[in-house]
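Subgroup meeting minutes
Present: P.N., E.W., G.H.
Scribe: E.W.

1. P.N. recapped why we're keeping a running log of single-chain structure predictions: easier to compare across weeks, and new members can see raw inputs and outputs side by side.
2. G.H. added today's entry (316 aa).
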Amino acid sequence: MILVRLLIGLVCWYDQLTVRFSEVFVRYVSWFLSCLFILSSSFVLNAFPVAAAKSQDDVLKLDHAFTSAFGKADRASLEKLLDSDFSGTDRKGKTLSKAEYLSVLSSLSTGDDSELQVMDAGTVVLVRGSHFLPSQNVNVRFVRIWVKRPTEWQLLIYQETNKADKNPEKRAGFGAPSNGEPVNCENPCKTIPYKPDTAEEQEVATMWQAVERTVLTNDVEAWIPNFTADFLFVTPDGGTPLNKADRVAMIKELRRTNTTLIPAEVLSMKVWVFGDAAVMRSEHKPRHGKILHVTRLFEKHDGHWQIAFGQQTWVE
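Output recorded in log:
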């Protein structure tokens, strides 16, 4: 009898020990998994900013290498930095291909860059600012657009626009007033002379056409979602670049005064898509005035393309 009681006691003690061990083990595993989740979440949240910062740093080093080689007219170095689709547009709207640009380096000297700012779209990094052109005694605003190719960053677009000493009274680059005449916006509202190579390029072009239709109708509510919060527009008149709020105010004033601006026709267009970023280069013929050479940067957010930057130069 005593032996039986002793055995029963040992079994009960073992059961209690097993339960306590299980509770401790479960608590330990739960703690370990919680720590692992927190650490992994922190890694995921921080990985993208670090990657973005690295891309921007890499591009700024290349951009410095470009300006250094440009200043020395170092054709061999520049040839490695320029994309095969590269185009360079001067302040008068003359656009050169890569081969043409490299052949006239000695006549393209500039002063030091100033007012540098960077827009980082991940696979596309935009560097903009201003500099002086000694040979022409003028200041210009420039934009350089670097794109991430499969193996390296390349300079896709370089463009200059005149920089005015003071803002003009009337800003330019927004289409021509209809002045009560019948409005016909076949190009670009309905059709454009551009055949995209991919569905992604078509998405960007179609989205841009929709934006032109909102401009035609002064539909500011439909216009707003198509532009990033930090959108910037460099106008051909040389005035201070306009931000999103500036453009919203202008469209509202057009609507208040019942003024219709007819978008300029597209003469030529090319779109490049790099994941969630895209670049558009185009030329436009307004109803009145000079032809416009335009560069735009697009970013894709939550499945929707938005315009982040635009720069226009009059073709003289």
